[in-house]
């Protein structure tokens, strides 16, 4: 496991990339390690990218990058990506250039009904095998294909596994939004 257990447990790089791997047995079976960031802890790569790869859940407290790529921040897990608290924006990759963003690949959900993943990004590509996709974005948002992830999708899932993505206006969809689990899809431009 990788645990940032204190509000002062920050990781910072000036223009360098930050890569964190929590998978002690390297077999992606959901048992090798989690990444947990407490509320108030911040990882800031400045103009670099951030990549978090965990075998178990990824709990995000505050990831920040000013990198202009669609995959400024990349999260990959066989489990869930969860909101670690509301002290900081969970994922902040907003350069105002119109193309910085996040790519998320999960096995069992992105955010929850009770606590959406809070983002300030310009682009998103997100997929999970099951569970929900719940994202609340500050600012406009474009759903894209990036890093091998097409749009926003639940690839298996079940009834009740929903996609709920909200942002300020506009929400632009340039890649497919699909829910193979028979759940609902809600895209909302609220600003």
Plain-language structure description:
- The chain is mainly beta and 191 residues long.
- The chain has strands spanning 2-4, 11-12, 18-22, 35-37, 43-44, 50-54, 58-60, 63-64, 73-77, 81-83, 91-93, 101-106, 117-121, 123-128, 133-137, 141-143, 145-146, 149-150, 152-154, 163-167, 171-173, 177-179, 185-189.
- Strands 3, 6, 9, 12, 14, 16, 19, 21 and 22 form a nine-stranded parallel beta sheet that branches.
- β17 (145-146) and β18 (149-150) form a beta hairpin.
- The chain is globular.
Distance between the termini: 39 Å
How many distinct beta strands? Answer: 23
Taken in chain order, the helices and strands follow as EEEEEEEEEEEEEEEEEEEEEEE
How would you characterize the largest beta sheet?
Answer: 9 strands, parallel
What would you call the shape? globular
* SS class: mainly beta
Q: Strand percentage, roughly?
A: 35-45%
**CA gyration radius, whole angstroms:** 15 Å
Give the averaged pLDDT, no decimals: 91
As a percent range, the share of helical residues equals under 10%
Residue runs with pLDDT of under 50 for 5 or more positions: none
Number of distinct helices: 0
Brief rundown of the structure:
With 191 residues, the protein is an all-beta fold.
Labels describing this entry:
single chain; 191 residues; mainly beta; nine-stranded parallel β-sheet; eight-stranded parallel β-sheet; 23 strands; 0% helix
Spell out the blueprint of helices and strands:
Layout: E1 2-4, E2 11-12, E3 18-22, E4 35-37, E5 43-44, E6 50-54, E7 58-60, E8 63-64, E9 73-77, E10 81-83, E11 91-93, E12 101-106, E13 117-121, E14 123-128, E15 133-137, E16 141-143, E17 145-146, E18 149-150, E19 152-154, E20 163-167, E21 171-173, E22 177-179, E23 185-189
Parallel strand pairs: 1-4, 2-5, 3-6, 4-7, 5-8, 6-9, 7-10, 8-11, 9-12, 11-13, 12-14, 13-15, 14-16, 14-19, 15-20, 16-21, 19-22, 20-23
Antiparallel strand pairs: 17-18
